Amino acid sequence: MKDNYTTRRDFVKNTSIIAGGLMTAPLLGRSNFFSGADNVIKVALVGCGGRGTGAAMQALLTKQNVKLVAMADAFRDRLDSCYNQLNADDLTEATGVKGNIKNRIDVPEERKFVGFDAYKKAIPLADVVILTTPPGFRPIHFEEAINMNKHVFMEKPVATDPVGIKKVLETAEQAKAKKLNVVVGLQRHFQNSYRELYKRKDLIGDITSAQAWWDNDGVWVNKRKYNQTEMEYQMRNWYYFVWLCGDHICEQHIHNIDVINWFKGGHPVKAQGMGGRQVRKGKDHGEIFDHHYVEFQYADGSVLNSQCRHIPGTMSKVDELLCGTKGKIQCGAANIVDMKGKVLFQYDTKAENNPYQTEHDELFAAIAKGQYKFSDAEMSASSTMTAILGRMVTYSGQVIEWEQAINSGLDLHPKVYDWNAMPPVVPNEDGYYPIATPGVTKYV
Ligand SMILES: NC(=O)c1ccc[n+]([C@@H]2O[C@H](COP(=O)([O-])OP(=O)(O)OC[C@H]3O[C@@H](n4cnc5c(N)ncnc54)[C@H](O)[C@@H]3O)[C@@H](O)[C@H]2O)c1
pTM, whole model, 2 decimals? Predict the structure, then answer.
């Protein structure tokens, strides 16, 4: 499955697994081990879109005895399209791997679930749950999976508002207490070049500033169809609604912000910034901005200048740079240089892996061995919250502290999930949605 998202380098297939940066691995108790008497690790997929299809393929391509046993999606057509892609005769084009995974798919009609409650029916049937819906649903789906004692692979971001972040943090504690493995699709943590740079980060001394970019043309639009309810329309065109997507600073730029938090070893303490929408102004562009620029400040006074833009015809750049007292880490170039530009370390990109596959290789290997190795939810919640803080400052135009933001009680979600229920934001009589105005919009 080709992901919608541009990456900086073409990944070459490499199955080597690097243990650096992983937790030590205590063995799991019986209740955490996968339940299949025949040693089959059963998987349920919740959110059968582009990424869900890719993640399911990657799970089924691992060396373990994995079977997809249940699928859940809000929409039947999305579920069917995913099911058909997974059952393709040949996956070469989608995955680079010859052959197919048909014998690993066991999802009869009675284990295909559709609608807002579909996740509740699919999750109990599995040992491992893949959560790949739009991020607005992640907190409730993650909570359900951990309540049901399942290991989890979930995509980033892990929420769209601070109330969702708090739920994810509480659930992360539960997952730890139950020793349930949780991997989050911030795949740079599973990418060989980033892991090698991270191991050598002390070569640049103390990190004093950083830059992060996700600048490109933007993503798909699903136009309104005449017979849709407002809820169905927003669910189909989810990228453009903050309760579902979080805005593109949260949805995509999180990858770059997360790298800086990872190398800094924590999240910023405050932020200020600016943003708006200059080009993406149509009725089908919902309420999100097309550019954000944020200055995040960490507790030690160091600053991250972060920018993301979705405007066709402008410079494309997806990258991170960290500057220290002795040199720089240039993630895109996969190298570390001193103050004069002399290369101190250059990663050999021939050894680069496909981190999307490695995430699943490592997760399923741990589960099969009965190991507890991954607890990514907390770190991912922190990076998601950093992106949400960025959005709060660009929408409001104010300086906002981390504690204010996370404790703001901002909850963007509807009280009821139903096709006829009103979503939290609705268009005016001309079909346009309210847009945040810095200086006027309050951050809560
Ligand atoms: N790590 C990466 O590089 C990467 C790449 C692509 C996408 N993603 C992430 O994956 C997630 C999904 O993105 P996508 O591109 O696959 O979107 P998509 O629209 O292709 O798929 C989302 C699917 O979820 C379904 N869905 C929506 N609400 C649901 C609900 N309440 N219950 C069940 N199903 C529901 C939709 O109908 C759709 O089929 C996003 O969080 C995105 O950020 C990550």
Answer: 0.93
